[in-house]
Amino acid sequence: MIAAVATRRRLGTHVSDYQRALKAWQAGRNAPGEPMPEAFRIGPALNRDPAHAAAIERVRAWTRQRFRLAEETAVLVAQVSCSLPGCPPLETVVAFWTGDVARHQFKLFKPVTAVVPDDLPPAWMKDALVVDEDSGFECC
What we know:
3-stranded antiparallel β-sheet, two-stranded antiparallel sheet
């Protein structure tokens, strides 16, 4: 397995488990050849605009760089809409995992295409971004 990964990396064809799962999810499959239930399909909801996709990849790369995350670390970047009073209409949510289960997350109160590197929290805040699953707070 390790030799196969090293060969794929050398050839520039390395696809992480995260990338493979994400592609299957976007394609509407939860396992090779097994269709995903209609209620879970997100294909039509995906923004297929190249500028949007490039912005998500930029924010993902900036997050990896800012917090010194390994390439295989899962980093989720999503633009979400909010209809609560006082909430910006579009927000960018970023989450990443370190260690075995430590989830870190933060929100940027602007669309993903408007995010710049200075919008990300400073690297020294990494530990403060850990989500305490037992706290009951799921705001950001």
